[in-house]
Structure formats: structure tokens, C-alpha cells
Amino acid sequence: MFGKFRRQATPAPAEQADPRARPRIRVRTNFGFDPGKAPSHEMATYDRLGQTLVATPVVPTLSGPDAAALARELVERIEETAADPEKPAGLRHVVLDLQNVQYMDSMCVGVLVELLTTLKDAGGGIALVYASTNIEYLFKLTRLDRVFPICRDVMKAIEAVERAG
């Protein structure tokens, strides 16, 4: 039943040199997903409006590695503005414009919740825009529509996320 997962307790090369180090457990799956491998293209287009980053994913399906890659891109963009002294103020909020996305799986929802937690710790938030009926139903079914504002246009989403932050 659980044949898809194989646990390997093989230490990494750096850990082999230190006998006191505990071996790392790596979980391998048969899904072909490599979390360390980033896609060769950007997952979204980005615009900045004040302290809000508006990200429009360009892929129709956000699942597995695509969700993780999108989250990495968002975090990188936020960290770039925080490190740049010439930018007026760092980004605190994210608006995801989902006009191109037709399907989102549970991993993507988990990544969004994790990203929301990180942004809330910094005083920010996330809002969703143009969610398809499938995605909107997913958020209503899981009751995450109470956590993520779902708006019909970008300006209303920016207002909602800044008001909540």
C-alpha cells in the first residue's frame, strides 16, 4: 500500500565525515518531483503597486513542483526588495491574479498557507483575484475563503490585503 515511499537513512557526504552527526532521512517518491530542481522559466509575471506584489501565474495548472517554484519566486522577489536600499519600502503583501489558472491541487493550497504564515509574521497578507469556479469552490470547501480574500479585480484585492494587514 505504501510502496511509493522508500525511506533511506543514508548520510550526506558532509555528514559521513562527522561520526556524531545523525543521518538525514530522505523520502523518495515515484512522482518524478525533484524539490531542488527549479523550472527553466518564470512561473509568473510580476508587477509592484506600493507595498504589494501582484503575481500572475502563466501556467494553467498549479500543482506539485510548479506550486513550490512559484512560492520560491515570490519569496525571492520579496527578499530582493527588502535588500535593495534604493527601493522605497519593502513588499509586505501579495496579490495572486489567477486568471490563467484552471486547476490547483492540495500541495499548492498548502504552499499558499505556508506563504501566508510567513507574510503575516512580517505584517503582510495574500489575496486572490479572478479565481475560476473550481478554485473558488476548493477554497470554500476547505473554508480557506475566510483566510484568503477572493476578489474580482486587482484593485479590490490590494485594498482588501492592505486593510487586513
Walk me through what this model shows.
With 165 residues, this protein is of the alpha/beta class. It has a single domain (44-164), classed as STAS domain (Transcription Regulator spoIIAA). The chain has helices at 13-17, 65-83, 106-121, 133-141, 154-164; strands at residues 6-8, 26-28, 44-49, 52-57, 61-62, 93-97, 103-104, 125-129, 150-151. The termini are far apart. β3 (44-49) and β4 (52-57) form a beta hairpin. Strands 3-4-6-8-9 form a five-stranded mixed β-sheet, sandwiched between helices. α2 (65-83) packs parallel to α3 (106-121). The model is unreliable at 1-12 and 18-38 (pLDDT under 50).
Portion of residues within helices? 25-40%
Number of strands: 9
Beta content comes to 15-25%
What is the terminal-to-terminal distance? 45 Å
Q: Structural class, from secondary structure content?
A: alpha/beta
Entry keywords:
two-stranded antiparallel sheet; alpha/beta; 165 residues
Q: Which helices and strands appear, and what pairs or packs with what?
A:
Layout: E1 6-8, H1 13-17, E2 26-28, E3 44-49, E4 52-57, E5 61-62, H2 65-83, E6 93-97, E7 103-104, H3 106-121, E8 125-129, H4 133-141, E9 150-151, H5 154-164
Parallel strand pairs: 4-6, 5-7, 6-8, 8-9
Antiparallel strand pairs: 1-2, 3-4
